[in-house]
Design goal:
This protein is an all-beta fold. Helix content is 2%, strand content 38%.
């Protein structure tokens, strides 16, 4: 039997013809013939579809990993609506799909692979995040590649993409800042008391912890700006570009202002002061002044009574309220509660950039109140929040003029950050006269209309809308009890406070207020409690009881300041007595924060800022709003650029599937004429508590975190062995894949490197840290013998970039007495180059936003014989012939002649300007191919001289073309040389050698598109 035109495919079809059974691989339409039976059979079978699956997700911490672990760090979420397309080697579209709500997709690609997978139609505001893996053949379930990836003609999983919004980035465990209050004048008894603190996001402990000391961890603070320096402040903001904290003056009865911009206390610029604070020193570096905030209602001679009713009524009506900064740090927005306008300031100079209208002129409806609209005098703005390119301000209808609780409403308005135009109607509004239990035994917690005079009640909650947060499209409002800022904790006007945290869920701008402990179908709070909107409250753990799981002593303990970081599980709220339900006593009159779960409403973590004593004469305010606002010191979102260098076999400037990356290419980043140095950490490990004991293997060392570390795959949890036998095989090897491991610990491209580690060694022997230079082991550091307990230290030594291995050694192994324990081993390299990996990929990280750079391929040795680009030239730039995203799959480099800072000659260059912080760009690719040379002969000539201008004879110059042709020229008596009949259209590598002379750039790259005249060389 003869079978003609047989094609190879993956799916097998079996057909029986007469007595013969034929097994063949099906094509779309394939004919075979049976010579034995003289029959012709035609079959039509569709080729098997390769199924590609993966996930697109928002990567909140920009680590390129799909993080889902619960706790204090961010939890990544899927991104819907991203288009995923497949293209075959011919550029034909072979399937497309769109990511679902969870970010997942499944793409059945037709035709025959391999395929180029492209991710397009990214939602507005999103850009690619960092990668955690290459962009070839998928990866692990938590990995992510770039927007263009390549897969084989087979089912492929985990072809994932991480996206980021720069304004929603925050590193793991950021530092938070909070304001605290001290009684009296800012130059009085407690002038030296810190009123601005920092603490890590993971401070405190779980809400069920029964050890009270754990709630105070950490007990020390790096940031400790004093009352004398800034006085009383509430709202805080952080500028990630300048590393400065902004703190806005606040009128709180019994706690004085700080000195304003004039540096003099008790002048008219004090109430409108905004302080810029360096968190590294706690010092004020500048002070701004908000216009028209000039009234100081304090009695500067008597802060005990502090103007009595005047001081009482000034809260929420004078001084500064909420404050936030634009995501790009271009504008600072602050509420002036005296003239009820939102101001925009230049965050560097403090210059006034404009203000909104008087917010009391806005219509604030009270549909279930005593009148249709809130009276102008009762409209009290406070909160300010910047979210996704808009400013949001919060206000209440205070019912001050009507004294009718049905008129109590909360409002959120949207403001254009550039024009400062305010929407005519609120984005959200709700009545807030719901049931709230008791502020203190026998003292009702329901919100009451604002009163202008001191009230006799021990609790008299009056609402101020002081904070607004947006969580996954939902709205969270912080309500502060005005009474807590109008009174002390004890004494003649001592009061109990009762703020609140409420939630509204649904489509952005069409929220529905929580009801009976549920919001948007989520929540686990007890229902029917009579506390909260609809007879129950979502965040139900904003209470305090004196005994474990006893009856509430305070039903409402919030202080109205909120902190939410995108991707986190919790909203953080300030409150009195943060430790509750776990101990019998000792946690009263305190101030701190709780972490409230946004899905269940439960409190899950708490941190105590101060341990108050209560009573008269204390520095703190006890239960009377003792803490102010919060802000997170999130770093600017990192910027990563780069992608791929590949062999463009068909020279079309398109990354076709099946065209391989080129490894070993040196890519340099320049800013002007200067190469950009950057630091990377190709190796860092923190190991489990095991130790290597001679030849007996690994055993636990009780009470110690120190570890054996191994790169040979024999020890779980490590990557480099502590060498006891002195062999090379057990060292940490550099610039090659480790035994039993896939990662490459590379020093390639480094200009310098540092090795750091922690260690202990035994009493009888010392230890050495050594590196291998390719021939022998060289000692980097020597450590004397000593006891395990006494000799514990950290090492930091310069590591030669030529090192091929490192090891830690203390002689021959002879049992448990010969030990060195090493932990936290880290290699850091400083480089101005990236070397493409096995897939041809390269990336530069930590670039500056809105900055011009160039990526250059200017290492001429790459083009020389034996180099990865020998015989190759850049292919067509900016091709548009392909389907899909042209910019993501094209080549971007073009030759530039003598770019400043590079070796003389022509080099492939990509010019770019970065975007805003967090705007990564993985579309900077370079294709290299073999271009057909021109038949016409060209020439290249020049002169070789000394530094004094004298010609040098008998200097040998070599010209090597892409096709491997080598031409030799030699200088004459006056140093002149000339090459002739050079085929045009190729890139040539020209090198020079001379006895007794050296040259700063002995190798040059030149594109032979025309005659080259005057390529001169000057000896050093």
């Amino acid at each position: 039997m003869t079978i003609s035109n047989l094609l190879t495919y993956r799916r097998v079809a079996t057909i029986t013809v007469a007595a013969f059974t034929l097994v063949f691989f099906a094509a779309i339409s394939q004919t075979f013939r049976s010579s034995a039976q003289k029959q012709e059979v035609s079959v039509d079978l569709a080729p098997e579809a390769a199924t590609i699956t993966g996930r697109v997700f928002q990567d909140f911490n920009s680590n390129g990993l799909y993080d889902t672990a619960t706790g204090v760090n961010s939890i990544d979420v899927g991104v819907a609506g991203v288009t995923v397309s497949a293209y075959d080697p011919a550029g034909v579209a072979r399937g497309t799909t769109t990511t679902a709500a969870a970010g997942t997709y499944s793409l059945a690609a037709t035709g025959t692979g391999p395929y180029r997978i492209e991710f397009t139609t990214l939602p507005s505001g999103y850009s690619p995040s960092a990668r955690s893996t290459d962009s070839v053949l998928g990866g692990a379930a938590t990995d992510a590649g770039s927007t263009v990836q390549f897969v084989n003609n087979a089912n492929t999983t985990n072809v994932n993409l991480a996206l980021a919004r720069g304004e929603e980035y925050c590193q793991n465990n950021p530092t938070l800042v909070i304001s605290r209050y001290a009684q009296g004048a800012s130059n009085g008894t407690y002038a030296a008391n810190p009123v601005l603190y920092d603490f890590p996001y993971n401070a405190g402990t779980t809400y069920t912890d029964t050890t009270i000391a754990n709630y105070d961890n950490p007990t020390t603070h790096a940031l400790t700006t004093t009352q004398a320096t800034i006085g009383t402040v509430y709202s805080l903001a952080y500028n990630s570009s300048t590393n400065r904290i902004y703190a806005a003056s606040y009128f709180k009865k019994h706690s004085g202002f700080g000195p304003g911009a004039d540096g003099t206390l008790n002048t008219s610029d004090d109430p409108g002061a905004i302080y810029l604070i360096n968190p590294a020193t706690s010092a004020v570096t500048a002070t701004f002044t908000v216009p028209n905030a000039t009234t100081n209602n304090h009695d500067i001679l008597d802060y005990a009574s502090d103007n009595n009713d005047i001081g009482w009524d000034a809260v929420g009506k004078s001084g500064l309220g909420g404050m936030d900064i634009a995501d790009d740090n271009s504008r600072l927005f602050v509420m002036n509660m005296q003239d009820r306008r939102l101001y925009a300031l230049n965050p560097t100079t403090g210059a006034n950039l404009g203000s909104t209208v008087d917010l009391s002129t806005l219509t604030m409806a009270t549909p279930a109140g005593s009148a249709a609209n809130c009276a102008a005098g009762d409209k009290r703005p406070f909160a300010v929040s910047y979210y996704r390119s808009n400013v949001y301000v919060g206000a209440v209808c205070s019912a001050d003029s009507t004294n009718n609780a049905s008129d109590l409403y909360a409002y959120v308005f949207q403001v254009n950050p550039t024009t400062l135009a305010v929407t005519a109607t609120p984005t959200f509004s709700t009545q807030i006269n719901y049931g709230r239990g008791f502020a203190d035994p026998g003292q009702a917690a329901e919100w009451r209309p604002w009163e202008p005079t001191i009230q006799a009640n021990f609790a008299f909650p009056m609402p101020m809308l002081t904070d607004i947060e947006f969580e996954n499209g939902n709205l969270i409002l912080g309500l502060r009890d005005r009474t807590g800022d109008s009174a002390l904790d004890a004494g003649p006007d001592g009061k109990r406070t009762a703020g609140d945290t409420i939630r509204a869920c649904g489509t952005f701008g069409s929220w529905t207020l929580e009801s009976n402990g549920r919001c948007g179908g989520t929540g686990s709070a007890p229902q029917g409690t009579g506390q909260g909107p609809g007879n129950g409250e979502f965040y139900h753990n904003d209470d305090f009881c004196l005994t474990p799981n006893g009856a509430n002593y305070h039903d409402e303990v919030s202080w109205g300041s909120l902190m939410y970081l995108p991707g986190r599980q919790h909203v953080i709220t300030t409150l009195l007595d943060p430790i509750s339900r776990t101990i019998d006593a000792g946690a009263t009159f305190d101030g701190g924060v709780r972490f409230l779960n946004n899905t269940t409403g439960n409190a899950e973590r708490a941190y105590r800022i101060y341990n108050g004593l209560g009573g008269v004469g204390q520095p703190d305010f006890g239960k009377a709003n003792g803490l102010g606002g919060m802000s997170a010191m999130c770093s600017a979102a990192p910027i990563e650029i780069g992608n791929r260098v590949w062999r463009d076999t068909d020279n079309d400037g398109v990354q076709d599937p099946g065209e391989n990356g080129i490894a070993g290419v040196t890519m340099r980043l320049y800013q002007g004429a200067s190469p950009v140095n950057y630091t990377t950490t190709p190796y860092a490990d923190n190991f489990p508590g095991i130790a290597y004991n001679g030849s007996t293997g690994s055993t636990a060392w009780s009470g110690s975190p120190w570890a054996e570390i191994s790169d040979d795959g024999n020890v779980t949890g490590g990557d480099v062995r502590v060498v006891l036998d002195g062999t090379f095989s057990n060292a940490l090897r550099l610039n090659q894949a480790s035994n039993g491991a896939s990662r490459l610990i590379s020093l390639a491209g480094a200009s310098s490197a540092t090795l750091t580690y922690d260690y202990r060694r035994n009493a009888s022997q010392g230890a050495t840290a050594e590196y291998f230079n390719g021939t022998s082991w060289v000692v980097l550091a020597t450590y004397a013998a000593g006891t395990d307990a006494a000799y514990q230290a950290s090492g930091s030594i310069s590591l030669p970039v030529t090192a091929t291995a490192i090891r830690f050694m203390n002689g021959a192994a002879n049992g448990n007495n010969q030990r060195i324990f090493v932990d936290n081993v880290q290699i850091t390299k400083i480089s101005n180059a990236q070397i493409t990996d096995a897939n041809g990929e390269y990336y530069f990280t930590d670039l500056q936003p809105n900055t011009a750079y160039q990526v250059r391929v200017d290492d001429v040795t790459n083009f020389a014989s034996g180099g990865p680009l020998f015989g190759l030239s850049p292919t067509l730039k900016d091709s548009t012939s392909q389907l899909g995203n042209d910019d993501a799959s094209d080549s971007d480099a073009a030759y530039a002649s003598n770019p400043p800072g590079s070796p003389a000659g022509v080099h492939p260059v990509i010019s770019l300007t970065t975007g805003a912080a967090g705007t990564n760009d993985h579309t900077f690719d370079v294709g290299f191919g073999t271009l057909a040379p021109s038949a016409s002969g060209l020439s290249l000539d020049g002169r070789v001289t000394t530094a004094e201008g004298n010609g040098i004879r008998n200097v040998v110059l070599s010209l090597t073309l892409e096709d491997g042709t080598v031409m030799i020229a030699r200088t004459g008596a006056f140093g002149y040389y000339r090459f002739e009949e050079i085929p045009g259209g190729q890139t040539a590598v020209v090198s020079i050698t001379a006895k007794r002379y050296t040259f700063s750039n002995p190798v040059r790259l030149v594109q032979m598109t025309d005659n080259v005249i005057g390529m001169d060389w000057v000896a050093e």
